Amino acid sequence: MALHITDECINCDVCEPACPNQAIYQGEEIYEIDPNLCTECIGHYDVPQCQQVCPVDCIPINPNFIETKAELMAKFHRLHPNQKTG
Fold first, then answer.
1. Domains along the chain?
2. Residue 15 in contact with residue 24, Cβ under 8 Å?
3. Distance (Å, rounded) from C-alpha 72 to C-alpha 40?
């Protein structure tokens, strides 16, 4: 499951640097998350860091990108082939 940022985003800039996969970027109006890079922080942390730092709670699961924890871990290993899980 990738995450996504909703229209409630206030562009506070705290989520982008919190993402260990560099999946978050500034879109045309609000920050966006690349689902091909988002692992919900699996492999890095126990919980998604963007959700932890977001002051307006606008980062839910993206219903268009449902993935199992095993699929997210496989994505982590593809993105970071030389890194051990956190």
1. 15-79 (3.30.70.20)
2. yes
3. 8
